[in-house]
Amino acid sequence: MRKTDVTALYDAYPHLNKIDELWGTRDCRQFIVRLMNDTRDGTRRGFPGDHARTILRLLIEHDRTFPQFEENITMVWHDAEASAFKESQATK
Question: For the whole model, what pTM was predicted?
Fold first, then answer.
């Protein structure tokens, strides 16, 4: 069970209780990471500071408890570079 207090986060954003349903899975980590990144082409406003810190604490706790789901940052950057290269080639 997670230790991070999510009461205020879930009160403000009830749909984020999905984190509890996914806790301990690769999908949970991916969901939390998506919350921390703009996936709406610049239209995402982001979370207020207190909630952003709670989300970051959840990610850290999840990674410590379930290290098997951590992504290799080198691999993530490589994938991002490969996607950017493919997109640049498609527009030529």
Answer: 0.72
What letter represents residue 23's amino acid?
A: W
DSSP 8-state assignment for residue 20: H
**Interval 46-76: pLDDT, tens:** 899 999 999 999 999 999 999 999 876 555 4
83 vs 8: CA distance, rounded Å: 37
Cα dihedral across residues 27, 30, 31, 32: positive or negative: positive
Q: How far apart are CA 10 and CA 21, in angstroms?
A: 13
Q: Which residue type does 32 have?
A: I
Pure H helices in the chain: 7-12, 18-22, 26-35, 49-65, 73-90
